[in-house]
Write a structure and sequence with these properties.
The chain has 23 helices and eleven strands. It is of the alpha/beta class and 588 residues long. The radius of gyration is 31 Å and the shape is globular. The structure holds guanosine-5'-triphosphate (GTP). InterPro entries: GTP_cyclohydro_II, RibA, RibA-like_sf. It comes from Vanrija pseudolonga.
Length: 588
Amino acid sequence: MPAVMSPSSAPTTHHSAYATQADLDILNLLTTDGPKPATAATAAAASAPANGQRKKSVVRRDAGLDSLLLSAVLAGSDKITRHHFGHGMTGAYSTCDQSRPSSPRQPRPLPRSQQAPRSQRLQAESAALASAQANSAIVSEAASSSKPVSAEASSSSSSAGPIGIPTPATLAPPSHDLATSPKELKERKRRMSVDPQPISQLLQQASPAHVNFFHGRGQVVKPTGRPTVKCMARTRVPTPHGDIFLHLYHNTHDNKEHLAIVTDPIQLSADARRRAPKGRREIRSRSLDAKWREGETDMERIVRGAYVGRLTAGAEGVPSVPRSAAEYAAEDASEDPDAEADILPLVRIHSECFTGETIGSMRCDCGEQLDEGMRRIAEDQHVGTAQDEYLPTPEASRAPSPGTRGHSHSHPRVPGRGVVIYMRQEGRGIGLLEKIRAYNLQDLGHDTVNANLMLGHGADERTYGVAAEILRDLGLAGDEALGRGGVRLLTNNPEKVEGLAAEGIRITERVGMVPRDWLCNHNSPKRSARELLDDEELEYDEYRARRAGVGLLGATTTRGPELEKYLRTKIERMGHMIDIPEEPKADA
Ligand SMILES: Nc1nc2c(ncn2[C@@H]2O[C@H](COP(=O)(O)OP(=O)(O)OP(=O)(O)O)[C@@H](O)[C@H]2O)c(=O)[nH]1
């Protein structure tokens, strides 16, 4: 049986140790000008071709070097590859041209290591270790005598990290001489193996979601204050529900890359702009459109997504015009007197769910909800409906979802628009590791809430500050005092409504999310006769019938006993604002 390698014991790659004849052939090919010398392998192949035909000789890659590619490699990689080897170890790419046949032959610079000689490095490591050991002796002495450690002593080692956390220098082999003693070799081996703590201890320690076994124990520091967000890039992505603009955000509260999936067809289609009410504003990121530095080029702006309209092959693209905060504030406060009645953008705050979205888990309906959210946002909307139906209390909000509610066809239909804010809050904020552990407790009969509590988590650990700032950056926060702007929120979760409202987002309406399986119950008395379905429902039915699969984008319904239990727990224990269907259901 092959030995299981721990990350710390995995071998590091050394070119010399793993060079095969094929490697040497390639190296030869890359580093030699003119005709290639025949190697044993190529000579054999040439003399005895397998198919009786003579093999073509390998063509040199002499295309002009792409300066962008080179700078990307230089900026992004610290690894030395055979390609680098072919151009010398000096790091000077000016030597590239010397390998081209058209260049005059010049003597190639000798490979020169950028490291200090090994003896010097060993000496430095040894000194660092001695210094760290001396330091820890002082620290433990100080701890035992309850005396503060002197600043001088604690700063005497440049490589010593915080107490208990070994730094790379203290983990390094002490020195050439020391490491040869059996004790040192044993110690060195121990440091390279996996953590020797017993499994039960590890399980306990790995319990809180913030602990990463390989990277050490983290601290739970709940960020305070209002987060700042910045859209780092956006791009157009075609989806089964039409083209969207994917925005990637950074923020000051966590190191996650949260996303905004913006559906705004007027930015991309002349037809949608014509059909949209006059005065409709584009949903754009203010931080992305801002000027990031003096003298930034149009190409920089376009590459990060700060452009208007659509990019097309061969064209240059039209960069967006940066605007000041004051200009945005004036626009938010003003009202275009010619603007026609429009419907506010539909927004869903969606939490990441690897299991439901990516592998189609039927324990939850997250994949379906993501798909349904994007579908609902993109579909045409009736202007003037349901604007005043929002009632924030669970009881009062148990109105049927718009999907089951007959629309008045006197209302004009306009292109849909809105955003799915995709928050990297896997497992309602506890992370994938903990969610997987919770699933095992659920298989033992506990519901989702209890499973979380048993692992020492809250039932729901999500916060909505970052999502609110993303909405604000997209110009969708609205203003309660002015009674203007804001969003319609697609959710059954009262905490989302309250959380976003507390962050200053104006929510004019809550739109319910009904599980597709409940919505499409063909055997219920109400839906048994297809003639009772109105046009929109029929359209939806056909839409469903075209789809196959579960949970993935553009797919159909999710169903199963585990999902039923999950949904019931949300309603009965977490106050989700949706009614469990009363009629007995059979599979559609
Ligand atoms: N801890 C835990 N998280 C889960 C479980 N199943 C799904 N999730 C997570 O729950 C999140 C989705 O939240 P939901 O409560 O389904 O939906 P919601 O977004 O709060 O509410 P709606 O807006 O009405 O859909 C995702 O992050 C999922 O990974 C589970 O069994 N345990």
